[in-house]
Amino acid sequence: GAWHFLSLPKADSAKLREKHKSIQRGWNSMRVQAKIGKTIWETSVFFNTKSSQYILPLKAAVRKAEGIYEGDQVKIKIDLI
Predict the structure, then answer these.
(1) Which of 9, 22, 28, 80 has the fewest CB atoms within 10 Å distance of its CB?
(2) Contact, 50 vs 2, CB < 8 A?
(3) Is the pTM higher than 0.90?
(4) CB of 28 within 8 A of CB of 74?
(5) In degrees, to the nearest 5, what angle opens at C-alpha 67 toward C-alphas 31 and 3?
(6) In what order do the strands lie in the sheet with 39-48?
(7) pLDDT for 31-65, tens place per residue?
(8) What's the CA dihedral at 16, 20, 23, 26 to 10 degrees?
């Protein structure tokens, strides 16, 4: 498929939500700049209330550029924008 989603760790999600919940937009989203490897892009993270984690959409272009496959563990950096 064109899109996959990464779940941010629960502890990081809890800290992010606690500190920045007031800036959430529709769908419990926050605008972020994400970085994986050398690839940087702007997107949003979305809070999943069932898992209590933020999820990051990971488009095919990023997966291809960084050689990411389903099931891989990925190191990401996100900054609120």
Answers:
(1) 22
(2) no
(3) no
(4) no
(5) 45
(6) 3-7, 53-59, 39-48, 29-36, 77-80
(7) 999 999 999 999 999 999 999 999 999 999 999 99
(8) 30
Burial class (CB in 10 A: 0-12, 13-18, 19+), 64: exposed
Neighbours of 10 (CB within 10 A): 12
Amino acid letter, residue 45: V
Both tokens of residue 11? 């502890």
> What is the length of the chain?
81
Concatenated DSSP letters of 8-67? PPHHHHHHHHHHHGGG-BGGGEEEEEEEETTEEEEEEEEEETTTTEEEEEEEHHHHHHHT
